[in-house]
Structure prediction request, 834 residues.
Amino acid sequence: MDHPLEFRPIQKWLLRKLGDGVAPARIRLQLATDGEAGYTGDAPVATVLIRDASTLARLILNLEIEFGEAYAEGRIEVEGDLPALVEAAFRAIPRKRMDTRYSKLASRWLQWTQQNSLHGSRQNIHRHYDLNVDFYKLWLDSRLVYTCAYFANDAMTLEEAQLSKMDYVCRKLQLRPGETVVEAGCGWGALALYMAQNYGVSVKAFNISSEQIAFARQQTKLAGLGDRVEFIQDDYRNISGQYDAFVSVGMLEHVGKAHHDEMKRVIGRSMKKSSRGLLHFIGRNQPQQLNAWIRKRIFPGGYPPTLREAVGLMEPLNLSVLDVENLRMHYAWTLEHWLARFEQSADRVEEMFGREFVRQWRLYLAGSIAGFRSGSMQLFQLVFAGSECQSIPSTRNHLYDNQRSREKGLKWMHATP
Amino acid sequence: MDHPLEFRPIQKWLLRKLGDGVAPARIRLQLATDGEAGYTGDAPVATVLIRDASTLARLILNLEIEFGEAYAEGRIEVEGDLPALVEAAFRAIPRKRMDTRYSKLASRWLQWTQQNSLHGSRQNIHRHYDLNVDFYKLWLDSRLVYTCAYFANDAMTLEEAQLSKMDYVCRKLQLRPGETVVEAGCGWGALALYMAQNYGVSVKAFNISSEQIAFARQQTKLAGLGDRVEFIQDDYRNISGQYDAFVSVGMLEHVGKAHHDEMKRVIGRSMKKSSRGLLHFIGRNQPQQLNAWIRKRIFPGGYPPTLREAVGLMEPLNLSVLDVENLRMHYAWTLEHWLARFEQSADRVEEMFGREFVRQWRLYLAGSIAGFRSGSMQLFQLVFAGSECQSIPSTRNHLYDNQRSREKGLKWMHATP
Prediction:
């Protein structure tokens, strides 16, 4: 073994210490070279196999980052259900116990190096969203909707649930033909195209990912929607003009707490007194940094706000909050679909980006499932309106009008752009 | 005339100044002794007749309080639609313009004299809710539900809309037979009885109004629900025990900003990790004191919080916000019903409490209609849950299941306690 800790009593002590750290989760720990710790009863959620004592020591110093690093590099193996393992850990380990001096320092270092300045945001977004589109095609739905789907009923496939989410957003916004919409952060363009095609609106959609914008423009041509949808490769902070509706799905959590004020100003100047808006974002019950490993490897600069923080954007603008819905379990289900598809294509992904990448993304998807299942993360849809908006119905019946949904349902199935 | 300002040029100047103050509202001002000001075009919303120059001077010093005082005492007459007049004023007059040095002082004086200490709350609540129940019977629905109704469809009567609100609250909370519910601020007990009768739960309901508790206990006996509903004449701050559901309809706006922290602690200790809660309250888009005249004459100690402030109660408790709905227009409609019934019984009310009381309450009801119509006030229903609550469905379909509503509808109509 190449680790510096050959002395067995120290290894055992460290292993026990880590075992105490994850209690009372039913997680079994096993050091490959020697010894076991953690839960010793029947039916453990999973067993974590730690390949060497050096990894063990690093886990104790900074569990939050080192678990991900070690798992990705294969210095840890998990026997059993990976999402269930992380969920058990989330439920069992109080936040405070994770905060060692070293882990706090590492977390601050990430915050400092991943700032969402105009330049920083471009880098942060580039790292995740400019990966080859063929990679995302392997495990997202056919329209590449990379945000929480809406499973209006249990029988829905991922394809249907993403369509149902987009339609739900349009109905929450009460879009009408001829209206103008601005979209802040548009991914590969599916929602912008859906709104234009099914609700007859004109859309300006902003995104700083060059790969995504290129794909979205291609789709626009294929769908013949060039007169109604414009994809603009620029930062949300450069949005200008006023619109009937402001929509942002899955971007607020990338904005970062330090830039909420800029986001507020963008919303404020984009909306008329009669406009409506919708923010769909990953949130929290309580203010908390995004998991440090996720920030390091997956979403640099990310920060899921609390509902209080998000509603705080509306207050200075005198906007009325009309509707908030928490769809946390829908994101767990969405991620389960993604993870299953990802696993089916794991060999192909390994050819593209190597084994470490596969393990990183497997852990990211599994960990996100755990986050939404355990309630460590929430998913909020927030509808708001200018002080003189008259166009949102006074009940939410229109969101659950089954006759209408059924008719729309037929259209959806044939509306692939 | 007995006013100190006989000099006509001063009167004219004051009248013009008041006219500028309410511009650009289409409100015509007329001083009975002399002169006109304000809007001079066609189709004014209403004409305000000011009986003497002393009233005119006081309106300029503190429009917020003096309009109500002068209207109640008959020193002002309104020709035209009273709610429309107040609505036009709310829309036209920016908050800042109302804040004279004198009005700020008066507002602070009210805050200081109307504090919601345990003793202060009893006094504040006594003044409004301990009025003779026969008075409220004249213009509320038959169950005396004195909070915003829910008009699930346009055809609903007030009776139906109050039943539909109570059922909506129960469905949002997903109450199940055998569960325990605590209600903070229960009015005359309609919701507590409804929950027990239609959802089979056991309810402890708190209220410091002796008149309301006496009435509620009487209703409990009549309905034979004594084994399942307990009405407790005590302050919400003295709630003890843990419950499956926490519900408070129309109380948070009486709590006062200075006591939000106490309210938070009550919610925190009443809920288990699996419990659900619902707050239904009058709110604001932006932090703002309640209208000073309303505090002086109608709701001493009242403060409608913003959604950010209300959600701020949940955050330190690690509660998940599941659903927020803004029902502002439903309160305008509810108040329109109340005002119309009130007017039908105005003679009877005058016999009971005198002419000034009738005019105070007419202005309060009309002004509240204006507040909700103009968006100066909001009505929020906020559903939240402990971190391990599994019992709220993942979609809101259950709130809009028409088959179920229709069946329930039959029951409601015969379920008068």
